[in-house]
Design brief:
By secondary structure, the chain is of the alpha+beta class. The chain has 3 helices and 6 strands. The chain has one domain: 2-Layer Sandwich (TATA-Binding Protein). 24% of the residues lie in helices and 29% in strands. The longest helix has 13 residues.
C-alpha cells in the first residue's frame, strides 16, 4: 500500500472526517470525484477551487496530489483537505485535526468542491 493511500484512511471513532479511500459501508465514506473526459483539467480546476475557499494554506501541490489546510471561520480550527488524481478519478479526504464533531463541515466542503468543478460521483 502506498503512502498516499495511507494518508487517505479516515480515523476511526471520529465523525469529523470523510474519505473516498474507505469502504462505502463506512460512515466516513464519500464517493470520489469523477475525472470526466479530461481528468488532468478537472484536477487543475479542483486546485483552483480549493485556492478560492478562503482561509486556506496549500501545504503540498504536486501534479496528482494536493494537500491544503482550511480553518473554520470563528475558532480557526484546522482541517486537512487531500486530493489525489488516480487514473480518471479524484480521491478526496477532508478531516478535522481537532475535536470530535464538525457538524458535517468537511462533508459539506467536499461536496461543495465537487459541485464547483462540475464533477459527478465516481463509482
Amino acid at each position: 500500500m502506498s503512502d498516499t493511500i495511507e494518508r487517505f484512511r479516515a480515523p476511526k471513532n471520529r465523525p469529523n472526517n470523510v474519505s473516498s479511500r474507505v469502504e462505502p459501508s463506512d460512515p466516513h465514506y464519500i464517493a470520489p470525484y469523477a475525472g470526466g473526459d479530461d481528468p488532468v483539467a478537472r484536477f487543475a480546476a479542483l486546485k483552483d477551487a480549493v485556492r478560492r475557499l478562503g482561509r486556506v494554506v496549500i501545504v503540498t501541490d504536486e501534479p496528482v496530489y494536493l494537500h491544503a489546510v482550511t480553518r473554520s471561520p470563528f475558532f480557526r480550527f484546522p482541517d486537512d483537505n487531500e486530493f489525489e488524481l488516480v487514473g480518471d478519478i479524484i480521491h478526496v479526504k477532508c478531516a478535522a485535526r481537532l475535536g470530535y464533531r464538525d457538524f458535517d463541515a468537511n462533508r459539506k466542503r467536499a461536496e461543495a468542491l465537487r459541485s464547483a468543478i462540475g464533477a459527478s460521483a465516481s463509482a
